[in-house]
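Risk mitigation, structural track. In case the binding assays with magnesium ion fail to produce interpretable data, a predicted complex structure has been prepared as a fallback.
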Amino acid sequence: MIELHGVNLVYPNNVHALHDIDLHIEKGGFVFLVGATGSGKTSLLKLIYREEIPTTGEIFVDTHDLSQLNRSRIPYLRRKIGVVFQDFKLLPYKTIYENIAYVLEVTGAASHDIQKRVKKVLEMVSLTEKSEMLPGELSGGEQQRASIARALANRPLILLADEPTGNLDPDTSWELVQLLDRVNTQGTTVIVATHNKSIVDAMKKRVVVLNEGRIAYDEEKASYIPNRQGAPELI
Ligand SMILES: Nc1ncnc2c1ncn2[C@@H]1O[C@H](COP(=O)(O)OP(=O)(O)O)[C@@H](O)[C@H]1O
Ligand SMILES: [Mg+2]
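Fallback model:
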């Protein structure tokens, strides 16, 4: 589903954000991407949805070879990838319903299909009752659930979440990760960049550790700080 071979990312200011990344994530996988601030988590996610282009190396996402991807094909790639951010990025003057409908409208979907799909994703995140509210009228956890609903609207193959619990309290964070786990169980490949040690440890998923732009560890059913000699200091 996602493959990176020998990927390096050097930003225009010469920051070498990612070094020699080789990573394979199979369809239906669930991966926690962890590492200190500045270790390259966001950069790695941006490469996958082609917000950034690698300086060297190859990236394949589903059927797309990103190095060969024509600009005009980027929207098709992006429809296969839902993205969730720490600060939700909901449009403040649109209702929750409108925020979700909007991403379907831009694909040219028929209005009755849009209605059906928005209803469905709102049910999935238990926000049916709040669909006519504005984002600012919802709690942080509800706003993040709304942003997950929006990310799922196009039935993406992949869901990328960049520190999705960064602004949430522990109980709400835990509920949110349970929701991401349910989404994964229904077949979506999920990658979560996070600092949340207790959640990573409790979920026992694959953990990929970035340390100064390099993959330091990559293990199945792992915990936040791999229990091994020489494990990097993460925070
Ligand atoms: N757009 C950018 N331009 C230049 N440098 C950047 C840019 N984005 C991130 N960086 C740098 O790349 C490194 C990795 O950052 P980032 O991927 O945001 O890490 P993380 O998400 O793990 O905190 C950092 O040194 C950061 O300052
Ligand atoms: Mg980041």
